From TrEMBL:
Gene3D superfamilies xref list: Winged helix-like DNA-binding domain superfamily/Winged helix DNA-binding domain
Identification of the protein by name: Transcription regulator PadR N-terminal domain-containing protein
Pfam families in the record: PadR
InterPro entries with a match to the protein in the record: Metal_resp_DNA-bind_regulator (IPR052509), Tscrpt_reg_PadR_N (IPR005149), WH-like_DNA-bd_sf (IPR036388), WH_DNA-bd_sf (IPR036390)
High-level lineage: Bacteria, Bacillati, Bacillota, Bacilli, Lactobacillales
SUPFAM superfamilies: Winged helix' DNA-binding domain
Length: 105
């Protein structure tokens, strides 16, 4: 089944991964793609938006003569992740209830 993922949920997914460790752009895209079908061209605008909203910061590290731009979650990003996680949990529980037919009239 293919499900369209909202930008808020995609933001939360990226922030969730960054809450564990810093990633450079390509590696982060690869990690997200393990769980969600998303293109590289989708990921970089997400990262720019997260940075412009103060949810992540960046730093560069040299690698084989070039720089890799790493992304790090901020405290604001951690708080936003908690908010998204709570919303997702409530939504998921509601959908699970309906899928089980566990509704009360």
């Amino acid at each position: 089944m293919t499900v369209q993922i909202s930008s808020k949920l995609l933001d939360g997914s990226v922030l969730g991964l960054l809450s564990v460790k810093d990633y450079y752009g390509y590696a982060l895209t690869q990690e997200v793609q393990k769980y969600i079908a998303v293109s590289e061209s989708t990921m970089y605008p997400v990262l720019r938006r997260l940075k412009s909203n103060g949810l992540v910061t960046t730093y560069d590290e040299p690698y084989q003569g070039r720089n890799r731009r790493y992304y790090r979650i901020t405290n604001l990003g951690l708080n936003h992740l908690k908010s998204i996680s709570l919303e997702w949990s409530q939504f998921k529980n509601s959908v699970d209830t309906m899928l089980r037919g566990d509704i009360h009239e």
